[in-house]
């Protein structure tokens, strides 16, 4: 008997194991270093190298050979992986020197440095468990964080010393604070100088941040985890920057804005990017590392919010600034002071700058993400087929990853200077589903929508119960030309549902006006657009949808939207599964929440409008609330408080607490049975 899809999906971490990722190209383009586990159900990630001339792969690091595959991670590393949604183990992150001759990484808290030419990895002695090690550009030193201190070790001599030591238990040096990692995609807290003799280092003090306690009710003998959580309207961690020299020097880099969004240090400039608490102003500064003096390079403002884009700032060989900013209704690539992309091409991220060329991802159609280059004179498309693409570029050699509805998994290819393509094999498992996904537009707002039908269903042969399966929140998409986004939806469809996935206002890829339509109201536009999409699809499939049986399920913002749907529109939605839902935005973090709703003390009515608590007495449809009790992102208090409000209103509902589970559910048995329990609930709820 073949393995069920829920079990296979859980065992393969949603089919991500065995997929090559984390590419680094050597400056001459001759080698590509990357991460990949040995099979599609092996959670231990290894480090590999591909010779682009001979097309031969080499295994550089196997954690099992180092007897480090059984992981004993420090709490800070567990938190970092939670922020990055990392569900695998082994070598999940690494850093190289500038020449890509050495790589460093952490395994079970130990510090390792690998010689890429010889393929030998060595464990270095450290005074504590290691977080985020990074080699100096010349490869002579490796910096790392342990116990909140930033330390540097000479790779050859083993000499190890602290450059900065925390002054209290709430202080860390060299680590990204919670908000930076969770909401700004900044996973690092220090940057090496290109000359390898100094580092720019973040000092974060969480003393002002409110203390929350995340208990494990299933194990009352264990103490609650103490968490500093900056909920909306409350203080953030205080961040500072210092240039720390290997000679012991320490130079402060002052700034006045609330948030440090990113920093970079290349041969042209030491740069920092800051953002005000209201997120309406972003400033780029150049820094004199000798004095710490800052010079304003550019300032971007927006009446709603400014967008943080990964990969910038960067510089071409001639020193020209590479930047992304919103202008004329679109997210545009700037080189120097001039936009080089049209406002109709929505730039997503800058992926690499290779001498005078910029590799970036962008969308014309919001369901597609393509690769483009700017070569100093013109825009050139890199990806030409329909799908979702990403990549890297160095030394004139590129690595291109491709996904689409027409192909299983992820295709990774090295493209050499002469155009020769060298595939990097994926070992991912095949889901074993017959996909039947149709992408299109629906509703009055022409929303990007996917309709997923059972493979066995003949169109027009009968009406199916409907399952809406959205995320629906700002800055995230579900409707992309990417098969992996619809695997769970297809499985639910095979059980007898017509599944609809729609991206409403607030989601990226359609320009700033569409994204900013959720300002001051996270509830109304999101819910209206799900109803709009449902009605639009019903017009397109008049004989296939049973609108008397419509369910909705989602996780995180999708969970919030699912609960919102049955509370406010029971005339449309007849059952809901709300996983890890935000129920009151005052309980969610500062940066995300205040970006869309402002400060709760200044706009309390906005928070009331987007909260679910006042709607508790309206519940008349079956609602299943699911929440991991160890969730430190959307804490279980969201579900528990909504449940209390529903109970006080006398409204029947179900709560499924997941002991020991965080915001993601990597546990195999939990992930499998969670899908089966949701299916059972929905079938019973819809009759």
UniProtKB/TrEMBL annotation:
Residues 67-86 are annotated as: Disordered. Coiled coil: none annotated. One of its GO terms (molecular function) is serine-type peptidase activity. Pfam families: DPPIV_N, Peptidase_S9. Residues 484-687 form the Peptidase S9 prolyl oligopeptidase catalytic domain. Residues 107-373 form the Dipeptidylpeptidase IV N-terminal domain. This is S9 family peptidase. Residues 75-86 have a biased composition (Basic and acidic residues). GO terms for biological process: proteolysis. It comes from the Bacteria.
